[in-house]
Amino acid sequence: DTEVTQTPKHLVMGMTNKKSLKCEQHMGHRAMYWYKQKAKKPPELMFVYSYEKLSINESVPSRFSPECPNSSLLNLHLHALQPEDSALYLCASSHPPDRNTGELFFGEGSRLTVL
Amino acid sequence: QQQVKQSPQSLIVQKGGISIINCAYENTAFDYFPWYQQFPGKGPALLIAIRPDVSEKKEGRFTISFNKSAKQFSLHIMDSQPGDSATYFCAASRTQTGANNLFFGTGTRLTVIP
After folding, report:
1. A106 to B45: CB separation less than 8 angstroms, yes or no
2. Which residues of B touch A52 (CB under 8 A)?
3. C-alpha B60: how far from its chain's center?
4. Is the bond into B8 cis (omega within 30 degrees of 0)?
5. Burial of A47: CB neighbours in 10 Å, binned 0-12, 13-18, 19+
6. Is A50 part of the contact surface with chain B (CB cutoff 8 Å)?
7. Segment A77-100, tens digit of pLDDT
8. With 70 as the cut, is the pLDDT of residue A1 above it?
9. Bigger pLDDT: A11 or B94?
10. What local confidence, expressed as pLDDT, does residue A56 receive?
11. Would the pLDDT of A101 be above 80?
12. From CA A99, how far away is CA A104, in angstroms rounded?
């Protein structure tokens, strides 16, 4: 069983809706990630938080807004999404760069469908 | 630009056979090479990983072979089982600097036939 918990597992939203994806980990990791995965493709990095500060933003459109309220939680706020944003959104965690062992632990993902 | 190249795209193996998936990379700064296994509708799970100071790592039926001079590494699944049917991703990262940004290969869909 994964130690990175994502909710909801499935989300259907219209293009005018505002919703959020949530991620929680209790492994003491201080780096957390959002990845997007389309069908039959590898995960693509969206955002990285290190010590609760945004350290990497891979040129993601502003309709995706990440938030890291504390060291255990990571949110992804969604607004005015497009149908092409439908994908599996994966959260991951790891030790931060100064303690990095390389291991990245993924949650089971939130399947997003935009109508 | 694909930092990590993976082949084959799909693989069909008989039960009990050996599954072999290959990856190649260009960036010599990479120092961590994991393999992830992903079942449909699930997140990727770390299967096995290797660092460039060793040429081989074995965990149960799974073995990584690493060739630093050729900048290649491969996953061998011995005695393949139907339960191994999944998509496998190789990856590479630099753990020395920056966040752990994994560069994934394109994935291999493995089907093990009973």
Report:
1. yes
2. none
3. 15
4. yes
5. buried
6. yes
7. 999 999 999 999 999 998 876 776
8. no
9. A11
10. 83
11. no
12. 13
